[in-house]
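Sample 3 of the quickstart, ligand magnesium ion:
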Amino acid sequence: MKVPAPGLPARVRIHEVGARDGLQNEKETVPTEVKAEFIRRLAVAGLTTIEATSFVHPKWVPQLADAEQLFPLLGDIADVGDVALPVLVPNERGLDRALALGARSIAVFGSATETFAARNLNRTVDASLAMFEPVVARAKAAKVQVRGYLSMCFGDPWEGAVPVAQVVRVAKALMDLGCDELSLGDTIGVATPGHVTALLTALNEAGVPTPSIGVHFHDTYGQALSNTLAALQHGVSTVDASAGGLGGCPYARSATGNLATEDLVWMLDGLGIETGVDLAELTATSVWLAGHLGRPSPSRTVRALTPPSSSASHKE
Ligand code: HMG
Ligand code: MG
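Result:
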């Protein structure tokens, strides 16, 4: 049943990260053809921004080492609708690889903390910003859309709570490089709604407008939907989520699942907020992928909507 609540956006764009953030974290490497079919099915389900893969060093993320083979298989996704297929790019080498295959949307990924910058990018925070600078400049010159991820915006497994001012400094620096959009990552899922509102308010005060901000919550402590609602109440209308709740981050201890797209769509449908996503089609896709992964989806909504007898997701 749809029961709208006041003060929320009429429409939310879901930035689907399952194929990248989800699959980068799987122990088993999923075959390239299965990844391509997964992405195609996500597009059929109505998702319009589907992060496809990463052009990072294959030793760092072996699960996505097939980026060169996968990306060309996605040409037919355009037939499904107007779908963007962003890819992660840490440096100019990654950008060269992405541009060579015709990528039109990229994401750089920074960290609000020094420890995660060192573990994820082998650099300090400022050295990573310097690494991104030519990437963003060249992408913008090529009219490629650029997202700037910022990890550890609320807490860090090695450094503890992360001060809002520290996050704002790096977020502002990413936007000053020319990123079109910022995604605030709660990489280890420790945020609570008041903290979300405080960070968004501080970013606005620093000159980062709400329409350019997306949120990327993890559900480690069961707070992802509460945090999403706080962000929606602040006016945010771009929300990252991962089909079936796949994934975490290979370089962040205790980064468990991303917010499941199905759980998000259930809440947004109930609030009467448009997403364009067909929940039944999406759920069927996550159940299908769970069959390939050999374990059930952690999404509450996927489980609630799937009869146990017909579900590959209940195979353990
Ligand atoms: P490095 O070792 O410092 O790299 O790694 P380097 O620049 O010193 O180069 C070393 C070698 O790597 C060279 O090869 C380069 O050519 C090669 P050699 O000359 O020795 O033969 N190289 C590359 N090869 C292929 N593609 C490239 C590339 N770059 C260099 N792009 C680097 C630095 C950034 C490359 C490395 O740290 C890396 O790949 N990190 C990626 C880590 C990652 O993908 N993490 C997961 C994504 S972040 C995340 O999930 C969080 C997020 O979801 C939000 C949230 O939840 O918070 C976004
Ligand atoms: Mg994530």
